[in-house]
Amino acid sequence: MLRTIRRVLVGAAALAVAATGLVATAPEAQAACTIKASHPSKIAITGYYKEVTVKLYDPCERVDWAAWDLIGPEGEAAGLLFDEGETTTYLDVYDWNYPVGSYKVRPYAAYDRDYNSIPQAEGALKIKLGTGAKVTSFRNGSWVGFDVLARYYSPSWGRYRGWDTAAKLQKQYKGTWYTVKTFDLNSSGKARVSLKRKDKAPYRVVVAETSKQWSATSATTWR
């Protein structure tokens, strides 16, 4: 009789441990199946329209329907929808419908084919104006001159315009870029700068990121 009771108690304890294990691992299993909308963290507005590809990350391959809201500086901007097992959707970015700034990709809802809810991850991205920088160089004896041009895309103009901002001229030495001169660009985004240098070296121009524009780095020029 005692042996029987002992077996029952041991069995009950084992069931309790197993149940505890199930309770502990259920959230872990749920977390492992968390889905997310895989999108660029940075989007540059470079023209009237840009199609941005968004992929569905579904580690447990359960999703039948999922949606996220894109919340921007002016509130809800768009929705991302994956329907009937789709794994790709698109964000239509026009130069007039997405103000520059930070956006949250906020979960709305997600379900499998049996209408069971699936956990979703929140995302974030930034949208700013596209930019570009160009530098050409020339030498006059021991002096090296640089003609610089920087531009950014203007939605109101529908094209690229001169970028009147600060810029840096950098020189590469042993694989590292060093700033050798800081200067301002005029309203046309242009400037001419010069340095007294005898040795030949690679140079580039860098324009820093602002609250509205992404940064720009020119191609390298040797002089």
Automatic annotation (TrEMBL):
<protein>
    <recommendedName>
        <fullName>Tat pathway signal sequence domain protein</fullName>
    </recommendedName>
</protein>
<feature type="signal peptide">
    <location>
        <begin position="1"/>
        <end position="31"/>
    </location>
</feature>
<keyword id="KW-0732">Signal</keyword>
<dbReference type="InterPro" id="IPR006311">
    <property type="entry name" value="TAT_signal"/>
</dbReference>
